[in-house]
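Check my protein:
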Amino acid sequence: MSVTTIIIAIFATIFLLVGLVYLSQARERARVAKIRKISLLTERHNRMQRLLHELPPQYLNNELRIMITERSIETISELSSLKDDDRSRQQASQEQDYLKQLREKNPKFKPVIVTNEAKAKEVRVLLESLSRFVENQNKRRLLDTGSTKKYLAHIGLSICQSKADLFAARAEVAKKAGKPRVAIHNYHNAIDAFKTLSQNPQAVKTMSLFKAKIKTLEQEADQQNKKPNKANNSSNGEWDEFLKDDDDWQKKNDYDE
């Protein structure tokens, strides 16, 4: 075998090895990219499902539900093509049925009252996430400007409503406990939750309802004040308890900032 043949064979072997290494690396990059895309699509799909099924239904309308469900179906369908599993295909089918129900029956959903601060924060985080999602859909030209503005207005109202609902729930608890002034304080906070939407008709309607409840509670509080006190110490104790309760509610309002 000549020297030239040996050299050619060596270079051919080197090129072959380099090609095999490059091919192996390309396959690994493709595998990693696929895993990342599956993870991204899974996370996106989970977020949309949380918006649909973990948000108290009173904070969404069916237009928003339809839009979110459409994007969720697109995501799970793409995910199914990458994973090629029965579970994803079954989930896509279930979501198609849910979308059909929304479009054809326009169902009504029973409100779920939020009664604790942790849940209220979770609701607000989900609504803010939905707001960013809508804006992103507009940037990707999947939503027109008119629909985007309408959806964002509804979400903004829902964020304020979620804050007001928590204070209203506290007010009801205080009212049942015979603490009308604590209830009044919380209804005032509920009204303040709408201060950025003072021209919104729905916000104005809700604030009027709270004001009417405040007026009724003030009358109850006046009636309590007219009742004879058993002892000065007892009266002072009740006043101290009110001040303590009032201070406690004020501290809890920090989440609202």
Confidence is low (pLDDT under 50) at residues 230-235. DSSP finds eight helices and no strands in the chain. Helices lie at 3-53, 62-83, 86-105, 117-139, 145-176, 180-192, 201-226, 232-252.
